[in-house]
């Protein structure tokens, strides 16, 4: 008989109760020896919650059960398998019984080989579920209590602040705070997130601010107004503000405003609409004097600026004649206006992107709530003296880093959430362009293009990819 010895412990449980991996392993091996079983394999999930079955060792064990490599699964207690009654029943009926695999506990009086044992499992699963629900209720209460007192929930120290250990709260780092204030001010004055990040990165090496995602996280973080946020609730915090409410709210309005294509007044039809297909930077225009005429080109901003500064350009997109690019865009408009299926297809893709965005936001928000619950549980236990901070410091650091990544991703999704429009409206505008183009002046042409085009991506070789403005 080949037995699978399944061991699971969450960091919180190990820290509080000494319910360690080693303790479980010793008990399970001793149980096997008492039964005269020498053929066994260990499957260990260290630091994983019992609230779901997304655990590497458990998945591996299930695969081995389904491959008929295991005759029996043994746990220290039923709740090591799962704290969800539904998951316990599913694993027993759909995995173990289906593959003639017995399930036993080293400390509880049941055995799936008997009807009484199966009934006992059901009862124990109910109590495991009850314990889990009670724990969640206690955590939720703890979260509300901490949030209502204005405590910062912990994590990597936010840029612009230091952590005062004696006062147990954030205090303003004036040097970094000046950078944060300038970042807000620059964005309000029209700088892009990329431009803000480049400026900030040149003034500090203490934190990675080299991408627009990090900038978005700072610009959208209500913490800089002296408040703390728990789930969707904003509470007055114990720390000092770096930016005032008026500035913060103005930046939020500007972020919302920039979700749609910005109107640029420029000398060229496509100014403000163009993006580099290699590096994602904006496109600028240059003029070159020939022997008989002046020629106009579109070129990647990164490539152009670095060459002007006599630096090696990272981007190699190249230079493309202005009129060639503009003609290709107009050809795209003409072809699409005669083929509604193209717009309908893109509209369907937009709807899918919108649904994906909303679904991912919900998933990330749920994940964020779970992380905050775990952190609140750990902080509460440290404050009450149930555990020592040194026991769980690594776990806290991992959770805090994960939370920051989730928050940055969530902020970026909210900023870039697409909005649906009707394809009929866009097609009608394209037909109007085709019919009236030759009669429009320059400003009217430029305005019409902005109504139907969101972005024009210049690809290597000079081809263009047009993203239609199907949003409101």
Automatic annotation (TrEMBL):
GO terms of molecular function: DNA binding; DNA strand exchange activity
PROSITE patterns noted in UniProt: RECOMBINASE_DNA_BIND, RECOMBINASES_1, RECOMBINASES_3
Sequence ranges assigned to domain Recombinase in this UniProt record: 158-261
Coiled-coil residue windows: 340-416
Single GO biological process annotation from the record: DNA integration
InterPro entries: DNA_bind_recomb_sf, DNA_bind_recombinase_dom, Recombinase_CS, Resolv_N, Resolvase-like_N_sf, SSR_resolvase, Zn_ribbon_recom_dom
Active-site feature positions: 10
Keyword Flavoprotein among record annotations: no
Residue span, Resolvase/invertase-type recombinase catalytic domain: 2-150
Entry superkingdom: Bacteria
One Pfam family in the UniProt entry: Recombinase
Entry keywords, A to Z: Coiled coil, DNA integration, DNA recombination, DNA-binding
PANTHER family attached to this UniProt entry: DNA RECOMBINASE-RELATED, DNA-INVERTASE FROM LAMBDOID PROPHAGE
Protein name (database record): Site-specific DNA recombinase
